[in-house]
Amino acid sequence: MGFKDAKKGTTLCRLEVVERRQVSPHIVRVTLSGEDLGRLPSPGYDHWFRFFLPQEDGETSFDLPEQLGMAGYLKYLRMPSAVRPIMRNYTVRELRPEALELDIDFVVHGDEGPASRWAQRVEPGGRVALLDQGRGYEWAADTSEHLLVGDETAMSAILGILRDLPGDASGTAIIEVPESADMQECAAPDGIEVRWIDRSASGAGRKPGLLALEALRALVPAAPGTTSAYVCGEQELAAEGRRHLVAAGVPKARIAFVGYWRAGKAAY
Description:
By secondary structure, this protein is an alpha/beta fold. It folds into 2 domains: 3-132, Beta Barrel (Elongation Factor Tu (Ef-tu), domain 3), CATH 2.40.30.10; 145-261, Nucleotide-binding domain of ferredoxin-NADP reductase (FNR) module (Rossmann fold). It has 5 helices and 12 strands. The strands form 2 sheets. A 7-stranded antiparallel sheet has the order 4-3-7-1-2-6-5. Helix 3 (155-164) links the parallel strand 8 and strand 9. The longest helix has 13 residues, at 235-247.
């Protein structure tokens, strides 16, 4: 199930926070648990979901639709604003079905964005919900080269893809992070070159995603017709990265791209 099929997801899980810890300067990992995780599919790769956060003040209702097609989304919007949970999109960092535990990595940046504030303050016992949306990266069987590009908001997704790609896969992964301490260990096929970009090394104030975009533009796929690509993160990185790949001859249908956020707008 790729990005275009996400509305078919029907597994709704109501969960509790069991742990929060700072894993790097800009990443907080929150561990969730609950019996509902026993029903959650495990497609691996960039497994993502709609994440429902509690209101910052007052009670929150988690009486949510079990599908987010048009009817389900309208039901969500019709919930009274005072009790309607905040909805964002996140990727599974690690799922441990046998322990009924799921980790999510949050990029935190002060008090900007409700999810960032929540992740820095939530205590064990906090209630949330998620609605499974499957995996977004569907690569063709004839893929000769994988190109995976993203900023810190796509790090969990790219690390999940690298973990689950076949051992004989080849290509390049480019991951831009705020500073070197935010880099994480990753398991990747021997044929995938993983390039980490430390944004702080380029000087203060650099717009997130631009260094990753520059690195992508320097790449020329050896066989564009059989290249599969994944470009996600800040909106300009996703849009311009796709534009570059199409100009290089990669078919549009073989490029998964999503602008998770826009620089200057506190969406998360």
